[in-house]
Amino acid sequence: MKNLIQILMIIPLVISLGIMQDKSNNLQVLDYESERDLKKYMKSISKDLGVKCKFCHDLNDKSIDTDHKNIAREMMRMQMELNKSFFALLGDSLHVHGEMPQISCWTCHRGSKEPQLVRPKE
Ligand code: HEC
Ligand code: HEC
User: Fold this and answer.
1) Does the CB atom of residue 105 touch ligand 1 within 6 A?
2) Chain CA centroid to CA 75, Å
3) What is the pTM (predicted TM-score) of this model?
4) What does the pLDDT read at residue 62?
5) Domain boundaries, the chain
6) Which tens digit of pLDDT belongs to each residue from 6-55?
7) Which residues contact 111 (CB under 8 A, 6 or more apart)?
8) How far is the CA of 15 from the centre of ligand 1 (A)?
9) Domain 34-122, what architecture?
10) Spatial contact of 26 and 63, defined as CB atoms under 8 Å apart
């Protein structure tokens, strides 16, 4: 009888651990339905910056925060904020882009981790 109770108590624990492993555990900004969509987004921003995953991630555990990852998170916040507020309103007034987001990492980075402040000399 005692054994049975112990087994019954363990079942919910095992199930919830399983669910936790399926889901990302340190997403503070992004909201993704599936791991696949998240990976696709990550590949895309890597190309926008011209870097590999390891520029931002500890490859043993991608949920660990690194200096570059923290900067990237702030960049994501900035980009979302600008699209939601500034450019959404501007888009309305110009009647050009409608609801589309206007800026991405590429808009500034153009395949480089260091956006240029000054136009290159011709
Ligand atoms: C420019 C920096 C940057 C690059 C490059 C990058 N990531 Fe990320 N990644 C982030 C940030 C920032 C987060 C956390 C986002 C949040 O807090 O919502 C994240 C989160 C993740 C997570 C979720 C981790 C968790 O908490 O469980 C996975 C998985 C991931 N990245 C995979 C990748 C893969 C695969 C690549 C390469 C194709 C990649 N990332 C390249 C910045 C980056
Ligand atoms: C409005 C322009 C702009 C956008 C949009 C933008 N960035 Fe940046 N980003 C910058 C600038 C400027 C710097 C350089 C800051 C510095 O040197 O201190 C930078 C620096 C960075 C760095 C640090 C690079 C290094 O060498 O250490 C990372 C990582 C980064 N951005 C990620 C991103 C990601 C990811 C996105 C998209 C979610 C993004 N940025 C969107 C302007 C932008």
Assistant:
1) no
2) 10
3) 0.86
4) 97
5) 34-122
6) 766 666 655 555 444 555 689 999 999 999 999 999 999 999 999 999 99
7) 47, 48, 49, 50
8) 26
9) Orthogonal Bundle (1.10)
10) yes
Interval between CA 11 and ligand 2 midpoint (Å) = 45
Residue-averaged pLDDT of the chain: 85
The residue that leads in pLDDT, 19 or 110, is: 110
Atom number, ligand 2, closest to the C-alpha of residue 76: 38
Ligand 1 within 6 A of CB of 75: no
Ligand 1 and 88: CB distance under 6 A: no
Q: Which residues approach ligand 2 with their CB closer than 6 A?
A: 45, 49, 68, 71-72, 75-76, 79, 103, 105, 107-109, 113-115
Q: State how far the Cα of 101 lies from the Cα of 65, in Å rounded to an integer.
A: 27
Nearest CA to ligand 2 atom 8: 75
Q: How many angstroms does the Cα of residue 81 sit away from the middle of ligand 1?
A: 19
pLDDT at 72 over 90: yes
Nearest one of 43, 47, 109 to 75, comparing CA atoms: 109
Which one is predicted more confidently, 9 or 115?
A: 115
* Cα(36)–Cα(28) distance, integer angstroms: 18
From the CA of 104, which ligand is nearest?
2
